[in-house]
Amino acid sequence: MRKLIQTVALSAVLLVPAASANAQVSFGVQIGEPPPPRAYRVPPRPHSDYVWIEGYQYPQGNHYKWRNGYWARPPYQGAYWVEPYHVNGRYYSGSWEGRRHNGNGNGNGHGNDNQNHNGGNPNNGNR
């Protein structure tokens, strides 16, 4: 009986890693709530088809970095900017959303020529 228990225990130890081999493991660093937004001057709109992207704090390493607001051209007609946000210890990047209805069939809209939307991780500095 003792030999059977040892065999079952050994089998369980050997099978557990095989069963969890397909499991996904992820981890993140929580750095807390972002600081409050900063005050800054909004420059004049460069053209009527530009929209204002409000400034925001984004995580970089173990702290937050400020990204000033800026004017941007939506990547396609009907696109709208969803601001980044922080909920329950997680940061969610800002992104363009909406349906592509531009009438020309290619879905390109009117370009994406004055923006840097890298999920809240711009590398081009503040504007």
Summarize the structure in words.
This protein has 127 residues and is α+β, with helices and mostly antiparallel strands. It has a domain at 45-127. The protein has one helix spanning 2-19; strands at residues 51-53, 56-60, 63-67, 70-72, 80-82, 85-87, 90-92, 95-97. The strands form four sheets. The protein has a two-stranded antiparallel ribbon. The longest helix has 18 residues, at 2-19.
What's the short story on this structure?
14% of the residues lie in helices and 22% in strands. With 127 residues, it is of the alpha+beta class.
What's the topology here?
Layout: H1 2-19, E1 51-53, E2 56-60, E3 63-67, E4 70-72, E5 80-82, E6 85-87, E7 90-92, E8 95-97
Antiparallel strand pairs: 1-4, 2-3, 5-8, 6-7
Q: Roughly how many Å apart are the termini?
A: 75 Å
Helix amount: 10-25%
Sketch the topology as an H/E string, one letter per element.
HEEEEEEEE
**What's the count of strands?**
8
List keywords for this structure.
single chain; 127 residues; alpha+beta; two-stranded antiparallel ribbon; two-stranded antiparallel sheet; 14% helix; disordered C terminus
